[in-house]
Design brief:
This protein is about 30% helix and about 20% strand. With about 240 residues, the protein is an alpha+beta fold. It folds into two domains: about 100 residues, no CATH class; about 120 residues, OB fold (Dihydrolipoamide Acetyltransferase, E2P).
């Protein structure tokens, strides 16, 4: 029992192996682009509904790729590789699937036998021209008389919202949402054919039917110069 510390074997006074290794707790910062890429990858889910989500996917991929480069070039000084990789993979998957889905919708949204036209470019922008001192419908619009067309627009709100047999289709939602007076060239009177009825929607809708020119003398006061005898109606699958 009188044995002193000097008499103890060296092994008896060696540091305990249970002492903490502080290297295990060394902090490695995460480059900010890694979580941003992951967040944009999540936001890219909206690309399945709107083209804006495809933009999120593009930025998510680019920023995630840059974050991976930063991590690789740090020689172990940065962490967050899994987070950046998750942003890259998620963004790529949603970018490809989002673009493919919108291409499919665009190619299949027009009913067979109908011609796609742009309300804004093919009708509203061309409007009327002056010939022999009189205002006439643009020749390109006049050439659409009697043709089966497919176009998109916004429904002008009226007193009735359900079981509509007729309604006004506007070029954009500016007049529709704020109650303004649309221009003659910015609206089309849609008449549902047969027993087909429409329900008022605040979002963009698509219609298909036979295009007709109306008597300009009757135009005005929400009586447009154009009419569509609609055989198809529904929420627009795409906004372009």
């Amino acid at each position: 029992m009188s044995q002193t510390l000097d008499q103890l074997e060296p092994s008896a006074v060696q540091p305990s192996s249970a002492e903490p290794n502080f290297d295990e707790f060394a902090y490695k910062p995460i480059p900010p682009l890694a979580p941003v890429s992951a967040l944009l990858g999540i936001c890219a889910l909206s690309g399945l509904l709107s083209p804006l989500g495809v933009v999120f996917a593009v930025f998510g991929f680019v920023l995630g790729f840059v974050a991976l480069r930063q991590i690789d070039q740090s020689d172990g000084g940065l962490s967050g590789r899994k987070l950046a990789m998750a942003g890259v993979v998620t963004s790529v998957v949603l970018l490809v699937s989002g673009v493919a889905l919108h291409v499919y919708w665009f190619q299949t949204e027009v009913p067979p036998g109908y011609q796609r036209i742009s309300f804004g470019l093919d009708i509203s922008k061309k409007g009327f021209v002056m010939e022999e001192g009189q205002g006439r419908v643009h020749p390109d619009i006049a050439a659409l008389e009697g043709k089966p067309l497919f176009l998109k627009g916004y429904m002008y709100p009226g007193t009735q919202l359900d079981d509509l047999s007729t309604f006004l289709l506007c070029r954009d939602n500016g007049d529709c949402c704020f109650g303004g007076q649309p221009k003659l060239t910015d609206m089309i009177k849609v008449k549902m054919k047969g027993d087909l009825k429409a329900q008022h929607m605040q979002h963009m809708v698509s219609v298909a039917g036979v295009f007709r020119l109306r008597d300009l003398r009757k135009a005005g006061n929400l009586e447009p110069a154009f009419e569509l005898e609609a055989t198809h109606f529904g929420l627009a699958k795409t906004s372009y």
